[in-house]
Amino acid sequence: MIIDFVLLLLAGGCIFFILNRKESDDTATELNENNEIQVESSKDSSGDNGNASEIDEEVQTWLSISYQEQQDTLERLALVNVKENQGIISFERMPAKEEAESSYNRTKESYDYYNDMISAAVTTAEMVEMTSTQVDFTDDCLNEIWRLIKYNTDEATFNKALEEQRQWLEDRDAKAKEASGEYDGGSFASVAYNDTYASMTMERCEKLLEYLK
């Protein structure tokens, strides 16, 4: 077994050691009542796969064994403090572009849903609240896709994207301000600002997907 890195996490007075194994070993790890690390494995003494059902039931829940097609082996690693109901599990990360597209699609679905709600809103206050929510989750999507670009593109590509992004941010903020200015500080000004901000951010998220291969 090769250990890629060790991470220390202090939570609830417990220090967790997270080991990222490059070779899976069908092992579940938990802290016992003395906060000492103990290991449970689905392999028997001969090294063959044993029965994952022998692992503590609460640990099985963390490992989502019931959702696996093969429930007699482990498909992921877990570090679980059953007593404190705390834990961390491993997962297989999808390719950067696929992850970015997934984030965009989820956000676009929410964005469209809120657009329908805004169309049916009765008061300006409701519209302000809903468009503010759109601003928040479109910004989250933008930041997530930007992080993926930063760590999954070469230097030249990232620098090109960075230059464009800086200019786009200035343009978006200026246009959102211009849209709100049409209402001279009235109650609908915030709706106009938020709507322009969120719609332009959604468009930018889609455009940024082109930087990922």
Describe the structure using short key phrases:
single chain, 213 residues, alpha+beta, 2 domains, 4-stranded mixed beta sheet, disordered N terminus
Describe this protein's structure.
Helix content is 51%, strand content 16%. The chain contains 5 helices and 6 strands. It has a 4-stranded mixed sheet with strand order 4-3-5-6, covered by helices on one side. A two-stranded antiparallel sheet has the order 1-2. Strand 5 and strand 6 form a beta hairpin.
Short description:
This protein has 213 residues and is an alpha+beta fold. The chain has helices at residues 57-63, 96-120, 124-152, 155-181, 189-208, and strands at 3-11, 14-21, 27-31, 37-41, 78-81, 86-89.
Helices, strands, pairings?
Layout: E1 3-11, E2 14-21, E3 27-31, E4 37-41, H1 57-63, E5 78-81, E6 86-89, H2 96-120, H3 124-152, H4 155-181, H5 189-208
Parallel strand pairs: 3-5
Antiparallel strand pairs: 1-2, 3-4, 5-6
